[in-house]
# Entry
Amino acid sequence: MLSITLKSYLMVRLRDNFPFTGTFSGCCIYKMAGKHYLRAKSSLTGKRVKKDPVFHKTMENAGLFGAASKIASAVYQQLQKKYKAHALYRQLIGKAL
# Structure
């Protein structure tokens, strides 16, 4: 069994073509922008973020962002294909906020 101890601030870039993504032994291996990274597993859970009063503001902001995304999506869908770009969609969300 592989046992690795990581500090919470440590993130490691792994070699190319790493054959595994997922969580094991308190570590999380994931792929981002075509490269594999290893970090310590977070102690946060979705349930805690949604229910704990400490994260009330986070959930409030998530609700605002969700509403802004729906508005931006409605506008973005009306654009011709030649004008569509992900950066524009993100700008629309910012304006809707």
Summary: Residues 76 and 86 are 10 Å apart (CA to CA). The two ends are 48 Å apart (CA to CA).
